Protein backbone atom coordinates (compact mmCIF):
# COMPACT_ATOMS: atom_id res chain seq x y z
CA UNK A 1 0.00 0.00 0.00
CA UNK A 2 1.59 3.28 -1.04
CA UNK A 3 1.39 6.53 0.90
CA UNK A 4 1.65 10.08 -0.36
CA UNK A 5 4.33 12.52 0.73
CA UNK A 6 6.54 9.95 2.44
CA UNK A 7 9.47 11.80 4.02
CA UNK A 8 12.86 11.40 2.41
CA UNK A 9 14.52 10.76 5.75
CA UNK A 10 15.46 7.77 7.82
CA UNK A 11 12.64 5.25 8.14
CA UNK A 12 10.28 5.65 11.07
CA UNK A 13 7.83 3.21 12.54
CA UNK A 14 5.31 5.97 13.14
CA UNK A 15 2.59 5.26 10.57
CA UNK A 16 1.11 8.77 10.65
CA UNK A 17 4.36 10.06 9.15
CA UNK A 18 3.66 7.93 6.08
CA UNK A 19 0.11 9.11 5.56
CA UNK A 20 -0.90 11.61 2.88
CA UNK A 21 -1.74 14.47 5.21
CA UNK A 22 -3.19 16.56 2.42
CA UNK A 23 -5.66 13.79 1.61
CA UNK A 24 -6.62 13.49 5.27
CA UNK A 25 -7.29 17.21 5.55
CA UNK A 26 -9.33 17.27 2.35
CA UNK A 27 -11.50 14.22 3.05
CA UNK A 28 -11.46 14.30 6.83
CA UNK A 29 -10.33 10.68 7.24
CA UNK A 30 -7.61 8.23 6.26
CA UNK A 31 -7.34 4.53 7.07
CA UNK A 32 -4.47 2.15 6.51
CA UNK A 33 -3.06 -1.21 7.55
CA UNK A 34 0.26 -1.21 9.41
CA UNK A 35 2.90 -3.88 9.00
CA UNK A 36 6.40 -2.44 9.28
CA UNK A 37 9.67 -3.40 10.98
CA UNK A 38 10.24 -1.78 14.35
CA UNK A 39 13.24 0.43 13.63
CA UNK A 40 12.88 3.10 16.30
CA UNK A 41 10.56 3.89 19.16
CA UNK A 42 8.07 6.67 18.70
CA UNK A 43 8.65 10.11 20.12
CA UNK A 44 6.02 12.06 21.99
CA UNK A 45 3.77 13.78 19.49
CA UNK A 46 0.50 15.62 19.38
CA UNK A 47 -1.49 15.33 16.15
CA UNK A 48 -4.22 17.38 14.53
CA UNK A 49 -6.76 14.58 14.29
CA UNK A 50 -8.47 11.81 16.23
CA UNK A 51 -7.37 8.20 15.90
CA UNK A 52 -8.84 4.74 16.40
CA UNK A 53 -6.30 1.93 16.09
CA UNK A 54 -6.28 -1.83 16.35
CA UNK A 55 -2.84 -2.71 17.74
CA UNK A 56 -1.77 -6.31 17.30
CA UNK A 57 1.86 -5.95 18.42
CA UNK A 58 3.13 -5.95 21.98
CA UNK A 59 3.98 -2.41 23.05
CA UNK A 60 3.48 0.26 25.70
CA UNK A 61 1.67 3.57 25.31
CA UNK A 62 3.36 6.33 27.31
CA UNK A 63 1.58 9.48 28.44
CA UNK A 64 2.84 12.25 30.69
CA UNK A 65 2.54 10.41 33.99
CA UNK A 66 1.39 6.90 33.16
CA UNK A 67 1.84 4.07 30.72
CA UNK A 68 -0.46 1.31 29.47
CA UNK A 69 1.03 -2.07 28.60
CA UNK A 70 -0.42 -3.73 25.49
CA UNK A 71 0.27 -7.46 25.56
CA UNK A 72 -2.38 -8.58 23.10
CA UNK A 73 -4.74 -7.17 20.46
CA UNK A 74 -6.19 -3.89 21.70
CA UNK A 75 -8.25 -0.94 20.53
CA UNK A 76 -6.60 2.42 21.16
CA UNK A 77 -8.26 5.85 20.97
CA UNK A 78 -6.27 9.09 20.69
CA UNK A 79 -7.28 12.73 20.51
CA UNK A 80 -5.44 15.78 19.10
CA UNK A 81 -4.73 17.30 22.50
CA UNK A 82 -2.77 14.70 24.46
CA UNK A 83 0.81 13.81 23.40
CA UNK A 84 1.78 10.16 23.66
CA UNK A 85 4.46 7.79 22.45
CA UNK A 86 4.57 4.10 21.60
CA UNK A 87 7.37 1.86 22.82
CA UNK A 88 7.44 -1.23 20.62
CA UNK A 89 8.30 -4.63 22.14
CA UNK A 90 8.00 -6.77 18.99
CA UNK A 91 10.14 -6.91 15.88
CA UNK A 92 7.23 -5.74 13.72
CA UNK A 93 4.58 -3.12 14.27
CA UNK A 94 1.23 -4.45 13.05
CA UNK A 95 -2.39 -3.42 13.13
CA UNK A 96 -4.85 -0.96 11.59
CA UNK A 97 -5.43 2.75 12.04
CA UNK A 98 -8.10 5.22 11.03
CA UNK A 99 -7.39 8.93 11.40
CA UNK A 100 -10.21 11.44 11.21
CA UNK A 101 -11.18 14.98 12.08
CA UNK A 102 -13.97 15.94 14.45
CA UNK A 103 -15.65 17.79 11.57
CA UNK A 104 -15.78 14.52 9.61
CA UNK A 105 -17.45 12.64 12.46
CA UNK A 106 -19.93 15.44 13.17
CA UNK A 107 -20.99 15.97 9.57
CA UNK A 108 -24.79 15.74 9.40
CA UNK A 109 -24.73 15.22 13.17
CA UNK A 110 -25.17 17.60 16.09
CA UNK A 111 -24.00 15.22 18.78
CA UNK A 112 -21.65 16.27 21.57
CA UNK A 113 -17.99 16.96 20.89
CA UNK A 114 -15.72 13.94 20.60
CA UNK A 115 -13.55 15.58 23.26
CA UNK A 116 -16.35 14.87 25.76
CA UNK A 117 -16.51 11.19 24.86
CA UNK A 118 -15.20 8.81 27.55
CA UNK A 119 -12.89 7.39 24.89
CA UNK A 120 -11.25 10.67 23.87
CA UNK A 121 -11.54 13.04 26.83
CA UNK A 122 -8.55 14.18 28.87
CA UNK A 123 -7.93 11.68 31.66
CA UNK A 124 -10.03 8.97 30.01
CA UNK A 125 -9.02 5.36 29.46
CA UNK A 126 -7.98 5.06 25.82
CA UNK A 127 -6.91 1.39 25.54
CA UNK A 128 -9.18 -1.68 25.54
CA UNK A 129 -7.80 -5.23 25.47
CA UNK A 130 -9.70 -7.50 23.08
CA UNK A 131 -10.70 -11.14 23.16
CA UNK A 132 -10.15 -13.33 20.10
CA UNK A 133 -13.74 -12.80 19.00
CA UNK A 134 -13.57 -9.03 19.55
CA UNK A 135 -10.30 -8.86 17.63
CA UNK A 136 -11.85 -10.61 14.63
CA UNK A 137 -14.81 -8.22 14.76
CA UNK A 138 -12.62 -5.11 14.93
CA UNK A 139 -10.35 -6.39 12.18
CA UNK A 140 -13.38 -6.96 9.97
CA UNK A 141 -14.57 -3.39 10.57
CA UNK A 142 -11.17 -1.95 9.66
CA UNK A 143 -11.04 -4.04 6.50
CA UNK A 144 -14.47 -2.69 5.52
CA UNK A 145 -13.21 0.87 6.10
CA UNK A 146 -10.14 0.22 3.95
CA UNK A 147 -12.23 -1.21 1.14
CA UNK A 148 -14.74 1.61 1.31
CA UNK A 149 -12.26 4.50 1.27
CA UNK A 150 -10.97 3.35 -2.12
CA UNK A 151 -14.42 2.78 -3.58
CA UNK A 152 -16.38 5.15 -5.77
CA UNK A 153 -19.51 4.91 -3.64
CA UNK A 154 -21.09 8.36 -3.39
CA UNK A 155 -21.96 8.02 0.32
CA UNK A 156 -18.83 6.24 1.49
CA UNK A 157 -18.18 8.99 4.06
CA UNK A 158 -21.47 8.18 5.77
CA UNK A 159 -20.65 4.48 5.70
CA UNK A 160 -17.17 5.00 7.17
CA UNK A 161 -18.67 7.14 9.93
CA UNK A 162 -21.01 4.25 10.70
CA UNK A 163 -18.09 1.79 10.85
CA UNK A 164 -16.19 4.12 13.21
CA UNK A 165 -19.26 4.41 15.42
CA UNK A 166 -19.41 0.61 15.59
CA UNK A 167 -15.81 0.53 16.86
CA UNK A 168 -16.57 3.28 19.38
CA UNK A 169 -19.68 1.50 20.68
CA UNK A 170 -17.82 -1.81 20.88
CA UNK A 171 -15.28 -0.13 23.17
CA UNK A 172 -17.95 1.61 25.25
CA UNK A 173 -19.47 -1.79 26.02
CA UNK A 174 -16.15 -3.12 27.32
CA UNK A 175 -14.37 -2.74 30.62
CA UNK A 176 -11.32 -0.49 30.13
CA UNK A 177 -7.79 -1.67 30.55
CA UNK A 178 -6.43 -1.02 34.03
CA UNK A 179 -2.83 -2.02 33.36
CA UNK A 180 -1.46 1.41 34.18
CA UNK A 181 2.14 1.76 35.33
CA UNK A 182 3.41 4.72 37.31
CA UNK A 183 6.92 5.32 36.02
CA UNK A 184 9.81 5.94 38.37
CA UNK A 185 10.90 8.72 36.01
CA UNK A 186 7.42 10.24 35.73
CA UNK A 187 8.75 13.67 36.70
CA UNK A 188 11.34 13.55 33.94
CA UNK A 189 8.73 12.35 31.48
CA UNK A 190 6.30 15.16 32.35
CA UNK A 191 9.05 17.77 32.29
CA UNK A 192 10.30 16.64 28.89
CA UNK A 193 6.77 16.84 27.51
CA UNK A 194 6.24 20.29 29.00
CA UNK A 195 9.51 21.62 27.56
CA UNK A 196 8.69 20.10 24.18
CA UNK A 197 5.23 21.71 24.14
CA UNK A 198 6.75 25.03 25.16
CA UNK A 199 9.39 24.94 22.44
CA UNK A 200 6.88 23.98 19.74
CA UNK A 201 5.04 27.27 20.29
CA UNK A 202 7.99 29.06 18.67
CA UNK A 203 9.05 30.78 16.52
CA UNK A 204 6.03 33.08 16.31
CA UNK A 205 5.44 33.67 12.61
CA UNK A 206 2.47 36.05 12.49
CA UNK A 207 1.24 38.94 14.65
CA UNK A 208 -2.32 37.77 13.93
CA UNK A 209 -2.04 34.48 15.83
CA UNK A 210 -1.85 34.73 19.60
CA UNK A 211 0.16 32.13 21.51
CA UNK A 212 -2.35 29.41 22.51
CA UNK A 213 -0.68 28.28 25.75
CA UNK A 214 0.25 30.98 28.25
CA UNK A 215 0.07 29.66 31.79
CA UNK A 216 1.14 26.57 33.71
CA UNK A 217 -2.55 25.66 33.89
CA UNK A 218 -2.77 25.76 30.08
CA UNK A 219 0.17 23.40 29.72
CA UNK A 220 -1.12 21.06 32.42
CA UNK A 221 -4.50 20.82 30.69
CA UNK A 222 -2.79 20.07 27.37
CA UNK A 223 -0.79 17.26 29.00
CA UNK A 224 -3.77 15.85 30.87
CA UNK A 225 -2.21 16.29 34.34
CA UNK A 226 -3.07 18.48 37.33
CA UNK A 227 -1.21 21.80 37.37
CA UNK A 228 0.23 21.03 40.82
CA UNK A 229 1.61 17.75 39.47
CA UNK A 230 3.22 19.58 36.54
CA UNK A 231 4.71 22.26 38.78
CA UNK A 232 6.19 19.71 41.21
CA UNK A 233 7.69 17.65 38.37
CA UNK A 234 9.26 20.61 36.58
CA UNK A 235 10.70 22.07 39.80
CA UNK A 236 12.06 18.66 40.84
CA UNK A 237 13.81 18.03 37.52
CA UNK A 238 14.99 21.52 36.53
CA UNK A 239 15.13 23.39 39.81
CA UNK A 240 12.99 26.17 38.34
CA UNK A 241 9.23 26.75 38.45
CA UNK A 242 7.08 26.13 35.40
CA UNK A 243 6.28 29.84 35.18
CA UNK A 244 10.00 30.67 35.04
CA UNK A 245 10.51 28.45 32.00
CA UNK A 246 7.51 30.01 30.25
CA UNK A 247 8.65 33.54 31.06
CA UNK A 248 12.23 32.93 29.91
CA UNK A 249 11.09 31.50 26.58
CA UNK A 250 8.60 34.33 26.01
CA UNK A 251 11.29 36.93 26.77
CA UNK A 252 13.66 35.23 24.35
CA UNK A 253 11.04 35.25 21.59
CA UNK A 254 10.08 38.84 22.36
CA UNK A 255 13.70 39.94 21.94
CA UNK A 256 13.92 38.14 18.60
CA UNK A 257 10.69 39.72 17.33
CA UNK A 258 11.68 43.21 18.48
CA UNK A 259 15.09 42.87 16.85
CA UNK A 260 14.26 41.10 13.60
CA UNK A 261 10.75 42.24 12.67
CA UNK A 262 9.06 45.57 12.01
CA UNK A 263 6.03 44.58 14.10
CA UNK A 264 4.77 47.21 16.49
CA UNK A 265 5.15 46.49 20.19
CA UNK A 266 1.37 45.99 20.30
CA UNK A 267 1.62 43.31 17.59
CA UNK A 268 4.49 41.62 19.42
CA UNK A 269 2.48 41.73 22.64
CA UNK A 270 -0.61 40.16 21.06
CA UNK A 271 1.38 37.43 19.27
CA UNK A 272 2.89 36.40 22.62
CA UNK A 273 -0.49 36.14 24.30
CA UNK A 274 -0.70 39.51 26.09
CA UNK A 275 -4.14 41.08 25.99
CA UNK A 276 -2.82 44.63 26.33
CA UNK A 277 0.53 46.22 25.32
CA UNK A 278 0.94 47.65 28.83
CA UNK A 279 0.92 44.11 30.25
CA UNK A 280 3.68 43.17 27.81
CA UNK A 281 5.69 46.30 28.61
CA UNK A 282 5.54 45.58 32.34
CA UNK A 283 6.41 41.91 31.82
CA UNK A 284 9.35 42.71 29.54
CA UNK A 285 10.77 45.37 31.86
CA UNK A 286 10.41 43.08 34.88
CA UNK A 287 12.49 40.37 33.21
CA UNK A 288 15.01 42.47 31.26
CA UNK A 289 15.27 45.76 33.12
CA UNK A 290 14.35 47.75 30.03
CA UNK A 291 11.27 48.50 27.94
CA UNK A 292 10.52 46.88 24.56
CA UNK A 293 11.04 50.17 22.72
CA UNK A 294 14.36 50.81 24.47
CA UNK A 295 15.51 47.28 23.71
CA UNK A 296 14.59 47.69 20.03
CA UNK A 297 16.37 51.05 19.82
CA UNK A 298 19.53 49.65 21.42
CA UNK A 299 19.45 46.55 19.22
CA UNK A 300 19.22 48.68 16.08
CA UNK A 301 22.32 50.61 17.11
CA UNK A 302 24.44 47.46 17.37
CA UNK A 303 26.52 47.19 14.16
CA UNK A 304 26.19 44.00 12.12
CA UNK A 305 29.18 41.66 12.35
Q: What are the salient characteristics of this protein?
A:
305 residues, Jelly Rolls, alpha+beta, elongated, 42% helix, 4-stranded antiparallel β-sheet, Arc Repressor Mutant, subunit A, 15% strand
Quick one: how many beta strands? 9
CATH homologous superfamily classification of the largest domain: Regulatory protein AraC
The CATH class label of the largest domain is Mainly Beta
- Listing every helix as H and every strand as E from the N terminus to the C terminus, the arrangement reads HEEEEEEEHEHHEHHHHHHH
Q: What ranges have pLDDT less than 50 throughout 5 or more consecutive residues?
A: 1-19, 177-184
Shape: elongated
User: What does the radius of gyration come to?
Assistant: 23 Å
Q: Give the end-to-end Cα distance, rounded to a whole number of Å.
A: 52 Å
What's the average pLDDT? 81
**CATH fold call of the largest domain:** Jelly Rolls
User: How many domain regions?
Assistant: 2
Side by side, the strands of the main sheet go 1-7-2-5-8
Helix content: 40-55%
Largest sheet: 5 strands, antiparallel
How large is the share of residues in beta strands?
15-25%
The chain-level structural class is: alpha+beta
CATH architectural grouping of the largest domain: Sandwich
Amino acid sequence: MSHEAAPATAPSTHPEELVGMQELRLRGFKAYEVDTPTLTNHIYRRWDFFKVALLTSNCAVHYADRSIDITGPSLMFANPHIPYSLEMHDARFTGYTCLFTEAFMKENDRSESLQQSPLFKVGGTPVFHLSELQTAYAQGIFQKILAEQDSGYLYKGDLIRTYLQLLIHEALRMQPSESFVQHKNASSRITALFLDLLERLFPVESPDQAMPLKSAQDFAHQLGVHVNHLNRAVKEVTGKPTTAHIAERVVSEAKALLHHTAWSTAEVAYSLGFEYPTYFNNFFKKHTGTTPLAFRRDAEQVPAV
